[in-house]
Design brief:
two-stranded antiparallel sheet, 57% helix, Arc Repressor Mutant, subunit A, mainly alpha
Length: 188
């Protein structure tokens, strides 16, 4: 197995030429081996967004919007704060998506029985129709992505969830060191 994902084209200059070092200095590692983990995660996120943009082209729904619709369908009625936390999204960003969904009639607010002051959000029949429209091209993209993994999907998912947990813990550590109120990766 290689260090690069399957299907990733090799980069010009990533071979051994030009990185031969001197007696005083060891050979320089190729850029993909020196780059920070946060950068790699950022790049993966960008590539996934581009991939899903292409997959959902023509549906009128962007990947981030589809994530909100899908979560609302799967999770059932939730408060906006719960949805934002589950998506790892800033509440203000979620609010932008939800406002558009409410305006289109794809979602509605219902009272929160646990707290009379807040609301929960649910998809309407129209919103569930959006999910049905987008699900086939999304599923094709998902199947193609999973087919190109070198590891079982469950193993990859577990690693990604470990990364999410590590980010949350690191954020809590930073908040504690800064003396801020806590770990809220969705608001920074």
């Amino acid at each position: 197995m290689t260090d690069r994902p399957r299907g990733t084209p090799t980069r010009a200059g990533s071979g051994s030429s030009g990185s031969s070092g001197t007696p005083d200095r060891p050979p320089e590692a190729p850029p993909q081996q020196r780059i920070s983990l946060p950068f790699v995660i950022f790049a993966v996120s960008q590539r996934l967004g581009t991939y899903l943009d292409r997959a959902l082209e023509g549906t009128g729904v962007r990947p981030a919007e589809y994530a909100v619709y899908s979560l609302m369908l799967e999770a059932g009625p939730r408060t906006p704060s719960e949805l934002a936390a589950m998506l790892g999204m800033r509440p203000s960003t979620l609010s932008t998506y939800v406002s558009a969904m409410l305006a289109r009639g794809d979602a509605r607010r219902i009272p929160n029985p646990a707290d009379g002051r807040s609301v929960r959000l649910v998809l309407t029949d129209r919103g569930r129709g959006v999910v049905r429209l987008v699900n086939p091209p999304f599923t094709r993209a998902l199947v193609a992505l999973e087919a190109n993994l070198d590891r079982p999907v469950g193993e990859v998912r577990a690693i990604l969830l470990e990364i999410v947990d590590a980010i949350d813990c690191a954020d809590a550590d930073l908040a504690a060191a800064d003396g801020t109120s806590g770990a809220d990766t969705t608001s920074s």
